[in-house]
From TrEMBL:
<protein>
    <recommendedName>
        <fullName>Arrestin-like N-terminal domain-containing protein</fullName>
    </recommendedName>
</protein>
């Protein structure tokens, strides 16, 4: 029962760079996996998500956008007793631009106006990476998410 629920199964950790810029277009990192019992990971799914908030207090609006997704379909054996397996990844993504960002990219004068508009609207973005592993013989897939700095 414990194995089917994933209680003593595969655990995931994300190893991400300290610096992140949305202009990069690709996010390099590693997924670290370990388990108390020997298991096989049959696939990994990674997603980069932007959480875009604007407004203040009761009028605050929040939207989330999936910027990129990577599916790894390799079979990866994860040995027992906490031996760590690392899988490097390169997650391509397309940044989203708000109307203010598009306006600001037209020339350097508009860039300053766009910055003022974002500050006035209290607009900001937060980025996170989510990873999920498909494990053979397990009903609940291990999952991890981590906010990445920009």
């Amino acid at each position: 029962m414990k194995q089917w629920l994933g209680i003593e199964g595969v655990k995931l950790e994300l190893v991400l760079p300290e610096k992140f810029s949305v202009e990069q277009g690709t996010l390099e990192g590693k997924i670290r996996m370990y388990s108390k019992n020997a298991q096989t990971v049959s696939g990994l799914r990674l997603v980069l998500i932007e959480k875009y908030t604007r407004g203040r207090e009761e009028e605050q609006l929040v939207d989330e956008y999936m910027l990129g997704e990577l599916i790894i379909r390799d079979e990866i054996p994860v040995p027992a007793e906490g031996e760590i397996v690392e899988v490097p990844f390169s997650l391509p993504f397309e940044p989203m631009q708000s109307e203010v960002d598009v306006f600001g990219s037209k020339n350097f004068l508009y860039k300053g106006l766009a910055w003022v508009a974002r500050k006035t609207r209290n607009a900001e973005s937060e980025y996170r990476v989510e990873a999920e592993a498909q494990v053979t013989g397990v009903g609940l897939s291990p999952f991890v998410q981590q906010v990445i700095g920009s």
